[in-house]
Specification:
It is a single chain. Helix 1 runs antiparallel to helix 2. The protein is elongated and about 30 Å long. It contains two helices and no strands. It is mainly α. The protein has one domain.
């Protein structure tokens, strides 16, 4: 894994965590969306 991929993954996870904690949308939906973003960036 490259450093750029890991940085992008951490950024996505931090953004998702913030959205979950602020109650933006459903937790399961946000987590699924984050996983899709991570997989599509490979």
């Amino acid at each position: 894994m490259s450093v750029a991929f890991l940085k992008k993954t951490i950024k996505i996870l931090v953004e998702t965590d913030y959205q979950i904690k602020t109650g933006t949308l459903d937790k399961d939906y946000l987590f699924d969306l984050a996983l899709l973003k991570i997989v599509s960036n490979r």
